[in-house]
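Model it.
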Amino acid sequence: MEELYIPILICFISFMASVLTFFSGFGLGTMLLPVFCLFMPVELAVLATAVVHLLNNSLKFFLIRKMIDRSVLLSFGISAVCAAFVGALLQDYLGSGGIVYQLNGFEYLSGVKLLSLVIGVLMIGFAILDLVPWGKDISFRKGQFFTGGLLSGFFGGLSGHQGAFRAAFLSKSNLSADVFISTSVCLSLLIDVVRIPVYLNSNDGTLNSHWETIILACVFAFLGSFIGKKLFTKKKVKNVRFIVALFLLVMGTGMIVGFI
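Modeled.
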């Protein structure tokens, strides 16, 4: 039963997350990473999520590539790519560490590694930003694309959490909705291209046993991209940010206490 449950859950999450990336403000990796963390080590979960993210972004890039703002792409992307490489190297370093602590008195809690702690804290941090009223209004002055690229790229390389900073900096760029999304997809694709080789270089081959899961996630993410593109101008989802933020808060807490 468990062997059937896991693929179904991953397929469902991949499909829904991919649909919502077109009009909810949430990225595929934000929702898929905690799900993968339930079934594989966190460093492998980040890699698996990145692979799905890359392939899905490649499809979305093909669908909406003509609406990219090249000036924003260049000014934001250069620093983002450099910072993504640094973030990925740091993730590799953190993943090589051992257990930093373990909560006593709970048999079902395991030891917490440094990378799990960092990823869990980031999940909680981004969840809180979506739950508090002022978190949704965070933005930066127009034109600070170099700084935005550094932050988005670094956290993208470290954990895959790149969308929040990118959106905060691009929100003042006066881009139309279509151009904003197209440019964001291309920037995200660049970060994926940089970080994945770094992850693969440190992988010990355990990814090979999870290719079926990754392929399933990709197929349903592709399907979600097609449907999301159709629905983008027709329907708006309400309360999605709140629901996903609660989900991230729970998963992040689970990671820092050793439940996940």
